[in-house]
Write a sequence for this structure.
């Protein structure tokens, strides 16, 4: 992550590359890039899309012509494509012309699809073919190797939010690699995934660190080897190789920072090979240790021209035949100020296009939004309203463009960017907005809970959770038993969507967090699984926590109350919210 700051506002963005890493004097580590300006204070770009644009999915034949978002009229005659009466590139034997996702595609009689960008037709697939991403990593958060949060606190916060993957940065030195790997080690034990971003760069201080593409490749490959060696033991199989490198001041032309995107000439031709070599080296280094690892290269804003040039082995001057950069994951950074990624402006303005659709058709890889958030200059209530709408867009795209993960920046960023304060305290209303959305739209994945097993739960007071029936017929769930008997046994039932239910062995009823009055304890009196009977099993160290999906709160064994009742009312996973479980 690089610092992003709108100069008309006083709030700076934290540099992702930690201060300790940036201070390293080695050639394999570079300081972060300077600030990237926001497009506007409200994060809105003028799209200038034509009101006469054809409906999405319009084809020739069928229609006589297609009008794009720029108002240009496309036709096909004798197998040749025309725009406003003039040919576009060298086309022949065109059988289908398609308007889709804000771009014009065509297919020839030979079956190969192409998409046009900058009057150049590039190979693609039919963009209408859906690409589906697997469940399990849909909801993610960002943090840093030098975070003040302990790994246990990070895991607890992620469990509370329903996030399953943490994106964490590491530089190229042993200090930052070790710090980030320690977080990954703990999260792995808690059943959570880590997505390292190798946040080393091509500069040493204010100068380029390498004199050639070969030098950059060699140094980066060594970094990739070291990072993968450190993270592989902890279940890490995906890596982001580089961080906003196409936006480095040695790569982006200084007078095109705001309007670059779909024109490759906006990037520095002389320095391009150094960046390309660095990216290739990181990928090859990781795969030297983990051949099956999935490596991503990230881009920003509407920078598909940079992605295309790397993918096709092109230079910004248009020359080809250079080494290609081929990634397994297409990763992107998109903040509110950059525009809507599904309706993003071309080169800082209009007309707009659907960037994930373009990437799917061009590269055919899963799409991950590894940094996103609202305008940090807006109040917390604004962020809370922005989060669910954005998550809804991302979730809908999972089965169409292979949208695999959305990792909000950031977990512990406080009022500027965070879902929690720097100490892990939930920051509302953004925290609750995120948590509520995830609770309502779970990322279906197999639970880590011991499904089908009969277990006991020991609270932090050393007593077992019991569902004994009182004389009045009530069955409050309390941590009061010194030994495990029938009332202290629960069968873990799969409740669907990654949720579980607990069925009390003594009476066959389900444990419910239904609150008919404030402070009402959990009860084991419900005969069927409904919303209040569903819990998320959160692993932390050698213990587990339970999140009531109906209200998003952790189940707590309140030790400041007689009989230590279990209540679903804790926003954080701490001592009272942890339970040791064992097969009973």
């Amino acid at each position: 992550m690089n610092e992003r700051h709108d100069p008309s506002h006083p709030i700076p963005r934290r540099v992702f590359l930690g201060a300790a890493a940036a201070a390293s004097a080695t050639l394999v580590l570079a300081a972060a890039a300077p600030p990237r300006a926001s497009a506007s204070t409200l994060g809105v770009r003028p799209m200038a899309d034509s009101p006469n644009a054809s409906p999405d999915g319009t084809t020739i034949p069928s229609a006589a012509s297609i009008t794009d978002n720029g108002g240009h009229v496309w036709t096909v005659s004798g197998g040749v494509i025309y725009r406003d009466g003039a040919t576009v590139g060298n086309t022949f034997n065109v059988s289908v012309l398609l308007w889709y996702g804000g771009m014009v595609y065509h297919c020839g009689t030979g079956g190969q699809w192409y998409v046009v960008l900058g009057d150049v037709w590039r190979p693609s697939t039919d963009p209408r073919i859906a690409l589906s991403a697997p469940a399990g990593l849909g909801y993610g958060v960002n943090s840093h190797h030098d975070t003040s949060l302990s790994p246990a606190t990070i895991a607890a916060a992620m469990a509370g939010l329903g996030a399953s993957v943490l994106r964490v940065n590491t530089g190229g030195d042993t200090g930052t690699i070790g710090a980030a790997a320690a977080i990954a080690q703990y999260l792995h034990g808690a059943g959570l995934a880590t997505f390292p971003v190798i946040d080393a760069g091509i500069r040493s201080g204010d100068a380029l660190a390498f004199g050639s593409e070969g030098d950059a490749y060699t140094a980066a490959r060594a970094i990739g080897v070291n990072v993968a060696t450190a993270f592989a033991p902890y279940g890490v199989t995906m890596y982001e190789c580089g961080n906003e490198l196409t936006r480095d001041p040695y790569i982006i032309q200084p007078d095109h920072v705001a309007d670059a995107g779909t024109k490759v000439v906006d990037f520095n031709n002389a320095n391009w090979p150094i960046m390309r070599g660095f990216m290739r080296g990181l990928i090859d280094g990781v795969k030297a240790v983990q051949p099956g690892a999935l490596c991503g290269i990230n881009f920003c804003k509407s920078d598909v021209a940079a992605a295309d040039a790397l993918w096709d082995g092109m230079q910004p001057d248009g020359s080809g035949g250079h080494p290609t950069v081929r990634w397994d994951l297409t990763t992107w950074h998109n903040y509110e100020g950059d525009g809507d990624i599904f309706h993003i402006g071309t080169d800082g303005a209009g007309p707009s296009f659907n960037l994930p659709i373009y990437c799917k058709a061009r590269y055919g890889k899963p799409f991950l939004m590894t940094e996103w958030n609202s305008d940090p200059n807006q109040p917390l209530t604004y962020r809370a309203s922005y989060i669910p709408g954005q998550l809804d867009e991302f979730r809908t795209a999972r089965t169409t463009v292979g949208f695999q993960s959305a990792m909000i920046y950031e977990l512990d960023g406080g009022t500027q960017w965070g879902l929690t304060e720097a100490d892990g305290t939930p920051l509302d209303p953004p925290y609750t907005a995120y948590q509520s959305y995830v609770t309502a739209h779970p990322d279906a994945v197999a639970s880590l809970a011991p499904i089908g097993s009969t277990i006991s739960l020991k609270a932090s007071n050393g007593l077992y959770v019991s569902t004994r029936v009182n004389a009045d017929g009530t069955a409050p769930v309390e941590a009061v038993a010194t030994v495990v008997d029938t009332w202290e046994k629960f069968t873990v039932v799969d409740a669907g969507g990654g949720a579980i239910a607990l069925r009390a062995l003594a009476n066959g009823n389900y444990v419910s967090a239904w609150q008919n009055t404030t402070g009402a304890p959990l009860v084991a009196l419900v005969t069927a699984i409904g919303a209040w009977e569903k819990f998320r099993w959160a692993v932390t160290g050698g213990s587990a926590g339970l999140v009531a999906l109906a209200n998003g709160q952790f189940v707590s064994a309140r030790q400041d109350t007689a009989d230590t009742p279990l209540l679903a009312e804790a926003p954080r996973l701490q001592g009272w919210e942890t339970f040791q479980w064992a097969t009973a």
